[in-house]
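Quick start: load a record and inspect it. Here is GntR family transcriptional regulator:
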Amino acid sequence: MINLDLKSRVPIYEQLVDKVKQLIIQGVIKPDEKLPSVRSLAQELTINPNTIQKAYRELEREGYIYSLPGKGSFVGRVEGHENDRKVESLTRDFEQVTSELLYLGASKGKLINLIEDLEKERGEEDES
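Running the structure step on this input writes:
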């Protein structure tokens, strides 16, 4: 389910954070679903448990997961106001990246096609 590139320049914990976010956003992992324990995921991925713990802390800080002492970590539910703040923040990031892409010569059509492709992928996943 989670594949990490150990040769990548991107730190392992960041790759793990990105993969878990992707699984949550795509609906593979549902709200309130229990995540694997730090120990079991570390064994499965053959990486240091501290790396898993760091990724889980970051996901919790960003509001994607929550932990219950003695129970484990679970996928969080996005509340309306939290969702609005996240959308605002991501929109600012999107504007910055889009401006940079346009400056570097990416065409408007290419960016629109990318958005449409992502929307189609998301629609197909919702139907599954």
